[in-house]
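Researcher: Here's a chain I'd like modeled. Treat it as a single chain, no partners, no ligands.
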Amino acid sequence: MLYFNNKYFSPTLIPSIATFIVFVVLISLGFWQLDRAEEKRIIEHDIHQAQKQQALNLNVYLKEEVPASLLAKTYHNVEVEGRYDSQRQFLYDNRTHNGKPGYHVLTPLHLSDSEMAVLVNRGWIPYNGSRDNIPNIQVSNKKLVVFGQLRNPSRSIVLSNTHISQLAMKFPVTIQSISVVTLSQQLGYSLLPIVIELDKEQPLGFVREWQPYYGKIDKHIAYAIQWFLMAVILLFLYVKLNITKSCEKRIIE
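Model: Modeled as a single isolated chain. Structure tokens:
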């Protein structure tokens, strides 16, 4: 029991333990949100630095590095020479643009002087009321150089084996999710574990308003402040509810 300014502070054991536990949890949640904000800040910084660098030549890069290393190159600008496989394309379903439903057109690109291929996201096309009524997505198989940005498919496309049975259908195949490994098996050639988002200035594409990475740092900071405020309020209520005036103390005794 503490006595100060004609008042007694006399907390009981069980409520004090409960308050301490909740207080620690609230403070921990606040610092966890601050850590999340810092992680997102680092990611955004790395992305900005990657986009400032010279475009990566994928044909040259793969002569020196293994394909899996491309996952560390996400958001880098890239150029690659090859030929589109127009006969085997995929329509990534449930993509929206200005509130309208549609698809992203994923077209394999065979790399020159290589047995590898990479999926190129050529942009958004609208859903026209029927899955059999889609815009013309055919593309020439002439050799060309494609410019774009590397994206990790696991960030935007759920890796799943749910729709393997659909791959036996006639191309272009509408898919809800994609497994690079499964598609490689069905296509009969290897796909790189990365997707290229076709640059807006490139021909042979559709609507391309690619969304930049946004880590929502402000949201994490706001959540952290919320948890810290709750901890302060809890501490205030704990002290307030356990303080009694001296006259009240004498009456109780």
